[in-house]
Write the structure tokens for this entry.
Amino acid sequence: MAASIKGVFNDELQNAILNSKILVVGAGGIGCEILKNLVMTGFKDIEIIDLDTIDVSNLNRQFLFQKQHVGKSKSAVARETALTFNPDAKITAYHDSITSSDYGLNFFKKFSLVMGALDNRAARNHVNRMCLAADIPLIESGTAGYNGQVELIKKGLSQCYECFPKPPQKTFPGCTIRNTPSEPIHCIVWSKHLFNQLFGEEDPDQDVSPDTADPEAAGDKAGEEALNSNANEKGNVERVSTRLWAHSNGYDPEKLFAKLFHDDIKYLLSMDNLWKKRTPPTPLDWKNLPDEVAGCSKDTDERLKDQQRWSIAKCALIFGKALENLKNKLEELRKKSPNDHLVWDKDDQDAMDFVAACANIRAYIFGIAQKSRFDIKSMAGNIIPAIATTNAIIAGVVILHAFRILTGNLKACKSVYLRPRPNHRNQFLVPEREVNPPNPKCYVCAPTPTAVLALDTTKMTIAELNDSVLKERLNMIAPDVMIDGLGKIIISSEEGETEENNDKILEELGVKNGSILKVDDFQQNYSLTVNIVHRDKPAVRGDVPDFLVVADEQDLKPKEEEEPKKDNQVPSTSNGQVTDIIDDDLLEIIPDDDDELMEVVDEEELPAKKRKTVSPGREVPLIKKRKTDRQVSDDGDDCCVIEDTNEVTCIPQKNSLKRVHS
Ligand SMILES: [Zn+2]
């Protein structure tokens, strides 16, 4: 291994590698690559944790796993495989959630540094807080299609993962798509998967039937029974059967509709656990479809077809027509080549009609705001899969960052972005100019964290405050909440202390506009002051969130109407970047204008106005002309130094900024 060979590294780095203790959080796409790099480099003492088991669909990019490992613990198999590369390494594997109370402050304090290779924001936020609390450097990494990034998070030195609000999450676990959609995009992703199941390249990752492995439905007897009794004969769960089933039914629109939008929904309803805290979906009857939907036009004016939102009856008509056309296209294609399939294309009228109609029908069923065909087209055109090579490159950069940290050169750990195509300097890997300092207003890493919470104090219950706001949105694990001034504890993390409050409305307990809540999470070593602002609850889900959490009350003002330069609230780093760090089995959505903007930033011929939108007068550190001294010799080889940070500054989230805090 590299570190065992004299002369590969300088003595200082060699010793540091041999004597460090590393925690890798996540054994998925990036985690596997990191672990391989660590053992090959000669790191001796490694611990790795992952909650997941190996799925067949992981095998195209998580190369420590093979077919015979499907169903086994990711961390355990990753350890086994990595040990074959370097039997001298000591690797401890945990098949567990990093958010478990077993991994508290003392656990984190054992390590020289932590490498985050996670696939979801909740776990990232938690690891961020634990590393801040333990004061251990964290190398946070992620990929999104061909984009990737690596950043250092170190208390007091750098921005933390939560320093700036993020665009809405663009990755969705399979069970959200299949069982519990709550946003229009979830329904759009599902519909694209359905297209592929029926007409496109079949992919086990893209199952559209109810997911009985949903951890939330665990122990749900009704769900299991429904699965065992009905599923197979109705084709609900056999992964490859959707197309065969549709084919054997002649792609009959009524039968397909009944299965997708009635039977499968009924089946989901039988999984009781899913609907304890959610509004349950409503199955639809083909023969009795609503023709009037609030805000939706039933007119069939073709000129406005793209801009209008359709009634469900109209969706069903379009669904039937698109289904027939697509079936005919597939049959034509297969006359020439029997195993061929259609490829989804947003510019193909039938393919787009099919997805728009299905997405809106599903949205209606789940009480989610419907969208026009035009909106759906822009969202559906930007769903891209995980890429193995991106993970490998990013994992390499993670190790280079580790070298700098271990030799005390933290200031050289500038955030690095991997771009889909080279910039005008022919660079794919682009570092920031320097480590970005913490946001003094951050509600996580500021000395006295404070946040503003806007919600309807006359509608929200204590249970919702606890589950949706504190746990889901603010990623606390076990919060305690006290009303400041009154000294009244309204939520306790101790069982049996405040359960009687759960169904009470905030106002009943004295929480109203102007109230201040003191929230503590002992597990995360995190205290937060929450200022309450009352605002009326929106009528429809999906368009406007039920509540907002912001660092500053000013941020509550609608952003949509503001000047583009307001986009500068998106910081220059990953923390506001469009490519929210992602990895793995999840899908991601990138905004329509992403590529265009990334490409044109430096184009001289570009009108100044447009460039302005990507180089806002944001709060960035003053640009230093001097290059940072480098102690790691290979630094320059892998991370090109750039002179102009504008290239990696924010990519405006024109359409999504308004939902940044949702
Ligand atoms: Zn912060």
